[in-house]
Write a structure and sequence with these properties.
Strand content: 15-25%
Distance between the termini: 101 Å
Structural class: alpha+beta
Number of strands: 9
Helix content: 40-55%
Strand order of the largest sheet: 1-5-2-9-8
Radius of gyration: 33 Å
Oligomer: single chain
Number of helices: 7
Length: 316
């Protein structure tokens, strides 16, 4: 039904994008279409604005797909960590029937995972004027949540009729250049895949580093609990352990576990709006780690510079 245009000379057409799409004026929907016929749709994918965040850091790695009749005819490059990406990529598409719209879908690239959907829109080709450059602004929507605003995509398009002998020349040139363009696409995909792997490795390294920092901080807090870094908390921990030891001496452990389980599973029934927390982790969060101890020592004022110390030195 359609193919991506691979003819270099046909894609390098002069573009003057200075008009917005006007569905109220004369369009090719009112013009009888030749059958068979072919149209060349030249598109410049400009940029996106205020796209939806899909990653944990509040950003996305967006890329765009063009589809006509359920067939993917173009895929843009990936812009990493950007909600206002600028692509400025050209696409040259051959279309046989203008009745089927051009679907634009935006995805967030996730290495090794399924890409997240960021919104879609469609362009009615019958509303485009032939041989007339047009600027198009499309609002992205989610079919499941139509009220959610997912940003906009800006395009520049021009639709040109290609019929008769010129159509045969275009098809022949497409077949001749197919191998050369496929080789270029393979090389570009290899480069993009290598860059995407580097970004994915960086994200994994950051995640592992954060996990190791949390584990080390947890161990330091346990150590500082028993080395009297904060005497009050150390005394409190020792008293709690002594009380727990005395309780274990008089009451079997299974009864303690039974009471703890009943309290744990009935807490939501007794207090539906209570905030669930862990008493042990809550206690350890109040014990400083080694990094916090060093920061406290750096911020602690020098007693030799206190006003009382200066007065005593002056009297002496």
């Amino acid at each position: 039904m359609l193919d991506t245009c691979k003819l270099k000379s046909a894609c390098n057409l002069p573009f003057v994008y200075n008009k917005k799409i006007n569905t109220a004026g004369t369009s090719n929907a009112d013009v009888p279409l030749a059958d068979p016929g072919m149209y060349q749709l030249d598109i410049i994918l400009r940029r996106g604005q205020s796209l939806a965040a899909r990653d944990r850091g509040g950003t996305s790695d967006p890329y765009v797909k063009f589809k006509i009749g359920g067939k993917e005819v173009f895929r843009s490059k990936i812009i990493h960590k950007n909600l206002n990406p600028v692509w400025e990529e050209k696409a040259c598409i051959l279309v046989e029937h203008l009745r089927e719209p051009l679907y634009i879908k935006v995805f967030d690239y996730d290495f090794g995972l399924q890409d997240d959907f960021m919104g879609s829109a469609f362009l009615d080709l019958t509303q485009l004027e032939l041989n007339r450059p047009t600027d198009v602004t499309l609002t992205l929507k989610d079919p499941h949540y139509p009220d959610h605003y997912l940003g906009i995509i800006l395009l520049s398009v021009i639709l040109t009729p290609k019929e008769g002998e010129h159509r045969d020349v275009v098809v022949e040139d497409m077949l001749e250049d197919e191998e050369e363009e496929d080789d270029k696409d393979d090389k570009d995909s290899e480069k993009k895949g290598f860059i995407n792997k580097i970004y994915a490795i960086q994200e994994v390294c950051i995640s592992v580093q954060n996990i190791l920092d949390e584990v080390a901080s947890f161990g330091e807090r346990i150590k500082n609990t028993f080395n009297w870094t904060v005497p009050f908390l150390s005394w409190l921990a020792i008293v709690a352990l002594c009380v727990f030891t005395v309780i274990l001496y008089f009451i079997p452990l299974r009864y303690i576990v039974l009471v703890w389980g009943i309290n744990k599973f009935t807490k939501k029934l007794r207090s539906p709006y209570a905030i669930d927390n862990n008493e042990l982790l809550d206690f350890l969060s109040r014990v400083p780690s080694d990094v916090q101890v060093v920061q406290y020592q750096e911020l602690k004022p020098d007693p030799s510079h206190s006003p009382c110390k200066r007065k005593k030195n002056n009297l002496g």
